Amino acid sequence: MAKTLVTGGSGFVGRAVVSALLAQGRAVRVLVRRPRHPALAGLDVEVAPGDLRDLSALKRAVAGCQRLFHVAADYRLWVPDPHNMYEVNVEGSRRLLETAAEAGVSKVVYTSTVGTLGNPGDGRPGTEAMPVSLAEMTGHYKRSKFMAEQVVLELARQGLPVVLVHPSTPVGPWDSRPTPTGQMIVDFLRGRMPAYLDTGLNLVHVADVAQGHLLAEERGRQGEKYILGHENLSLSAIFQILSELTGIPAPKIRLPYGLVMAMAYVSEFLATHLTGKPPRVPVTAVKMAKKIMYFDNSKAVRELGLTLRPVRQALSDAVDWFREHGYA
Q1: pTM, to two decimals
Q2: Beta bridge partner(s), residue 274
Q3: Which of 233, 254, 277, 287 suits 200 as a labelling partner, its CA being 20 to 30 A distant?
């Protein structure tokens, strides 16, 4: 049986993609840096140790695979040295996809992010077709993913059978790192969320994001982008749902943007010059929150047949998983 390669299979979205593939009875190989990663425990996968910076490891991982889901990325909103992020996200993607093309992989699904798409930021939803430029990217993560996307689109123009998917803000179980959104939920559960910013996000269950990947593989058009998102919600509405699910009071104090930005600069100064640990409030995260990140998923629903469960269920599943695994 031809194998399917998943990069980043131990990550939040990657593990969900692996689980969805296994549910279809697929033979899955996973490229990971930590071969014994706890997120892969109990999953019937072939582990290929390797790194996106290592060309020989990529060639070994791709060998014998007909399909590729490139989910791996260096996803951090604060990096003391951004060089590695560009090396992994941009050059690593180039290396992997060129290797896949040489090996004759028949279909590639590349995981981007809605952060690379155009968005008015005022509550009107962004779409796949909205104009956007590198200058509009906030922080090294978004910049590196935008640059990587240009590499992917160029390879598509050269004939690589690749489809791009843009998850919005996935929520659900197995957010083990956790992601910034997962950390927000954990902080809420621990009673460390006394106030909030006036912003908004598009949330989606991580299992629906995984299913969107498989639908993109099956039905997506070469070189096309598809938003994998669901409900547009204000941050205060998200906390209200969490409050209803947990009985923990939702924060009622809305902080002014300028105050939070000042806190973020202090937090990053301490992280850079004192602790060496990631700041609790990254400057990039606050800058991103200034825009209301709403998106329109109608293209994925129409062309891929994407079906979606309520975001309330996604938040409930995330809360249950975090509690069961000792995060709160």
Answers
A1: 0.94
A2: none
A3: 277
